[in-house]
Amino acid sequence: MLLRFITLLPALLCSLSVYAASGLKDVELRDLYFGEVLYYAYQDLHFDALATLDSELSQYYKLDESELDSFHKHLTQAEFSVGDIELQYRMNQRAGRAIQAVLGEGIDLAIRNQAALALANVFYKKNDPQSTLYALQLIREDPEKSRYEAKYSLDVLRGKEPETFRTDVAYLRALANIDIGQFTEAAKNLQLLRNERNLKGFVLYNLGIALIQSGEEQKGLEVLDELGQLELSDDGLLALKDKTNLKLAYRYLEKGNAREAQRRFERVRLDGPYSNRALLGAGWVAVSLGRFDRALVPWSILHEREKTNYSVQEVLMAVPYAYGKLNAHGKAANMYDYAMDVFADEIESLDDSIKTIRKGKFLTALLNEKARKDVNWVVNLRELPESPETRYILDLMASHDFQESYKNYKDLAGLRHHLDKWLADLRVYEEMVDIRRAYQEPLLPVVEKEFKKLDARVTLRLEQRENLATKLKNMLIAPRPDYLATATERQAMDTINALQEIIITRPELVSEDVVRRVNRLRGAVSWQVNSEYDQRLTDAYNNLISLDKIIKELKLRYNSFVRTRQAATQSYEGYIIPIRQLRTRLFAAQRKLKGVMAKQGRLLETMAINELDIRRKRLEEYQIKARFALAESYDRATKSSMDEEIKKQLDAQKTQEQKRQDRLAKEAAEEKAKLEPEIKPLFEEEAPPVKNSTFKDKLLGK
Amino acid sequence: MLRRYFKNILISTTLVFSVLLVPAQAAEVTKEQIKGLDEQVQDIKKDVLDLTSELTRLEEKLLFPSNTQVSLFVSLQGDKDFVLDSMQIKLDNKVVAQHLYTFKEIEALRAGGVQRIYTGNIKTGDHALVASFIGRAKSGNEYQRSEKFTVTKAVGPKFVEMQISGSSASDQTVSFKDW
Description:
The complex is a heterodimer.
Chain A: H1 9-12, H2 32-42, H3 46-62, H4 75-88, H5 92-102, H6 109-125, H7 129-137, H8 154-157, H9 164-179, H10 183-192, H11 200-213, H12 217-228, H13 235-254, H14 258-267, H15 275-288, H16 292-303, H17 310-325, H18 329-358, H19 361-366, H20 369-373, H21 377-380, H22 394-398, H23 400-477, H24 487-505, H25 512-531, H26 533-570, H27 576-674, H28 694-701
Helix pairs in contact in A: 2-3, 3-4, 4-5, 5-6, 6-7, 6-9, 7-9, 9-10, 10-11, 11-12, 12-13, 13-14, 13-15, 14-15, 15-16, 15-17, 16-17, 17-18, 17-27, 18-27, 23-26, 23-27, 24-25
Chain B: H1 2-21, H2 31-63, E1 69-76, E2 83-91, E3 94-100, H3 103-110, E4 115-121, E5 125-136, E6 142-153, E7 158-165, E8 173-178
Parallel strand pairs in B: 1-7
Antiparallel strand pairs in B: 1-4, 2-3, 2-5, 5-6, 7-8
């Protein structure tokens, strides 16, 4: 029986996470989009987080110089987070692969160790303890504790203390040991964790189980008893404590140790989730001691509780049984009668629920948005119109298999919504592309023509500027004052050169005075050009700088125009084929999703119907038992009533006989005295027995 | 012979109809069934995620080309007692985004998440950005702040982070960071 305890363990893993509000305060955020991924992940919007992260990662991998991108700083965290979020989105297959990639050689030991732990968690959730242990073996001792402070997993990013790493590893190893039957090893590991404050209750619970399974039953029971007496405040741990006490109590009860069982039952809270079973058990303890009157105390409390509960239904039969044992057969028959009414109502309700589920209302209720936002949504599902009676399937709905299937169904509904939205969006995008095409296509040829003209002029000007710059550069090495002569100077020099030519070719026409004046003029112009050369060169450079500013502005405008022209073309070119391909893939995914969703829905319905059917059969059995018990109680009640009546009548007869005897004696004495014989009736007529047969009437009526 | 044939037809028709008409009996649900379906669900999740990644890129390229794209982000580094109720963003004197925060969103921001509150298109050059928020202290006092910033848009996409911070609930302010 105790082996059943272990099934609780996977759920306990969740409690390992101790979140604090510190978060990214110690981590410098280098990429806003990584921050956005965390924003979604922290809200448990796993799909959005994964979609954003996938998108960022794929864009990053396509970059030529990816190390220059801001996302590069978060790359390791991002690659790790993919696996982490995929795990939370229950994509175990992909999460395992992603985390395994981080386990490669040459990676920081702290990251490697955390990846190994995450991978071990994946395997454990997949019920693969052997692989869990293998992944845990990959963890190496790291001498630098501080290196764990680098934030990698989401838990760590959320502020989980790195110090819990070793504890988490040891605890997971112990759980995997239990799963593969290495109880001694598990007990040894768990003994080392006994003082871990965060795991206190869970460690004791598992340690108790491991010890019992390894053959050290007494020690195991003592450990469980220690847990059963802990002073706790956390609701989850209090429930675990109640469960431990309950299990211990039933174990003692089975062994016939009623006193010890009673002590454990008394430790279970009256308002906790195990109170019904504890009240039922407490009654059976009293019965085992032969104290049916005492059994009625806890059972009467339980008798008034929710009638759909297993224990309450059992007590509906147990209470009249106890009354019967106390010879209150009339009361017992009454209560059996009440139980039969309750069972009949419940069976009818179960039948209705099964019909409702078959109509598909259950699945609709599961996806109801209003129910989803309600904290107590499982219980309140039945409040929704035409939804089945969920009180009967609370246990089923809390089970791991149902929860996983339900989450899958909900995820599929979410994916269906995404696909529908994308398909609608694609239609809009197509229309948008058409509108852009219709607007841009007639405009672009005109713009293109103008652009070509302008482009030629711009190119010419740019070439001119380049020539100018080259000349000025050369003039620094080899000065050329004539290059910087003004137009007047160049004109004067041309005139002087013409005169010089006449002087050379026809000297007879020119006087010496003219020759001298021409030479003086040449000297004057040459002097002016050479003496002002430095200043002119500086001015030329300054002008070139001014020109550069204008050229820069020109280039900006030119580039802006080129980009706008390119953007205009790109705003409608190259979309149609990708949109069509994506639409085809979306339709394929939608078809696949519909099929799987239908299967998943049927699975959930089958689970619910099976559970309701079991409950129905059990109630039918109770009904039959109650019917027989009612008949028996009635018989006993009638017999007891008749016995009493007969006794009364006998007593009355005795009294009458006595009276008659007395009277006869008196009469005889008087007769003797008077000697006058007088005839009197010897017997008085008996009164008919009083009928008190309401139970019988009821039984016959039924 | 003919009678026998019709009898056979009748029996098989009855059987078919009885199979169709009888309500589906609850069958056993096996672990293998659950596991098999779970694997199929995981496959679909992978497909849809891959598709979403591609569609997001297409959408970004189509709606927010990099030369005009501007994205505004909100982060929270303020006092723990401060509860952010709402944000309003004005760009060039036009309200472009408004958001009311849920408890989960505030917790995610406090833990270090960053919210992308707006993505749109603007021309190159300077643009006036006004970020306003309304929040509460634990005491119930309400606070409103508004801060201005000039977004200078160049050729590439523009990212601006608006960080709400302050040492106490009453002195929370918005600071801007160009990325």
